[in-house]
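Subject: for your reference before the review

Hello V.,

The reviewers asked for a structural picture of the protein, and I figured it would be easier to keep everything in one thread rather than splitting it across files. Below is the amino acid sequence we used in the manuscript, unchanged from the supplementary table.
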Amino acid sequence: MSDAPGRPMKYPYTFTAKIAQFPLKFYIQNQWIWRYWFIGIAVASPVFYKIHKMANSPENVSKWAEIRKKEAAEHHH
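And here is what came back from the structure prediction:
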């Protein structure tokens, strides 16, 4: 058996055939959304990383633990 079919189906009715014949390269090259999606991820990743580091810092975690402890104490009275 060969890796690729000798001739593509006229109408790809199976899901696999649809995926195999989908012109993904054309869409990536000709639609703006793909380019900006990757650029957006590259730009936003460092910002989200900084927010994550600040939110999960030991000082902030202990501060929120205290706040939760106070709230729990208020609800038990």
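For the response letter, the relevant points are probably these. DSSP finds four helices and no strands in the chain. The chain has a mean pLDDT of 87.

Happy to draft the paragraph if you're swamped.

O.
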